Amino acid sequence: MAQTTPTRKPVAEQERRGPFTPMVILLALLPLVLLGGVLALIVKTDAGLGERAVPPIETLNVQQVRLPEPGVIELDIVNDGPDPITIAQVLVDEAYWQYEIDPGQTLERRDSATITIPYPWVQDEAHGIAMISETGVVFEAAIPVAIESPEADRESVLRFGLVGLYVGVVPVGLGLLWYPTMRRLGRRGMNFVLALTVGLLAFLAVDMWGEAQEIAMGVAGTLNAPILVPLLAAGMAALLVVIGNSLRGRKGASNGLDLAYRISFGIGLHNLGEGLAIGAAFALGEVALGVFLILGFTLHNVTEGVGIAAPVVGERPALVHFVALAAIAGVPAILGTWIGAFTYSPFWTTVFFAVGIGAILQVIVEVGRLVVRSQAKAGEPAMTWITFGGVTAGVAVMYLTGLLVAG
Length: 407
What we know:
alpha+beta, Immunoglobulin-like, 10 helices, 9 strands, flat
C-alpha cells in the first residue's frame, strides 16, 4: 500500500503567531518612539529653517457675540492662526473702549478667550466691534440688531421648547396621519410613495450638505471642519450599515418598522439643525427671521411624516410606534432650539449635520432596495415612469416648501 505524505501548507498560509514577549513589545514601540523624537527635533529646530524673518501670521475667529444684559457685550474668540496673538485694544462703534479678557490678552494657537466690554448698547440698533492686535492687525465683529441674549430661565426654556414642538413634533405627526390613506394604495401607488420618500430624503441630504459646509466655514480653521463633513457622513452611513447587517443576522430580514425608525432617526438629526437655526436667529435678535423660519419649517416638515410612514404601509404597527416615530423625528427640533438659543456652537452644529447626512444616505439605500425588490417581483425595471415620478415629486415638494424658508 502506497503511503501518502501530508501536504504542507505554504509558508504564507501558515499562522505566524507567538507570545507577546517584552522584546516583541519593545520592537513594536520602537518606531513610535523614534517618530516622537523626529517630531520633537522638527519643532525644536523649526525644521532646520531657523527663525523666520517675516511678520507673524495672525488670524482671529469670532465664535459668538452675546449681549447677556444691558450695558454688556461679550465675545468668544479663538486664535485661528499659527502664531500667538496679543489683543492690545478694542473699539466699539469706532471708539476705543475698556474691556476685560479672560484668561488673558495673549492667545497661543487654538487658545480661546472671552472678551467682556462694558458698553451701553442700544436696543434694536446695529453696533460694530474691532479688536486690534499688538502688531496692528484689525479683527472685526458685528451686532446686526442689538437685543438681549436669551437666558436659560424657566420661561425661556418653555417658550423655545414650544417653538421646537411646533416645528418638529406637530408637522411630523400631521404627516403620519396620512397612513390610513396610504394603506389603500396598490403596489404601484405604494412604489410611488416609496420613490417619493427617496426624493424627500435626497433633498434633505443635499440641503444638509450645503448648510454643513456653510456653517463649517465659520468654525476655527485649525479644526478643519469642512473636511469633517464628508468623513463623518461616510462614517455614520457605514456604522448604520454594520448595525443593520448585525440586526438582520440576529432576527432575519429587516421589516418595514425597523426602516421607519431609521428614517425617523435621520430626519430627527435634520430637524435638530432646523431648531439650531431658529434658536440662533432669536439669540442674534433677528426675531422676524426666527418667526419666518418657524412658519417655513412647519410646512416643510409635514412631508417628512409621509416618508416615515411609507415603509410600514404593508404592516399594522401599534399606535405607540407612531408616537415614538413622531418623537424621534420631532423632539430633536426642541433640543436644537434650546442649543441654538442658549449655547450655539458652529463646530458641533457642523458635526450634527454631517452625522445626519450619513444617516439619511444609508436610509436612501434601504428604501431604494424596497422599490427595486417590489419592481423585480412584478417583472418591471426599477426605474419606470411611476418611480421616476415619485422621486421627482419628492424633490419638487421639498424644494417648493423650502422656498418659504429661503425666501
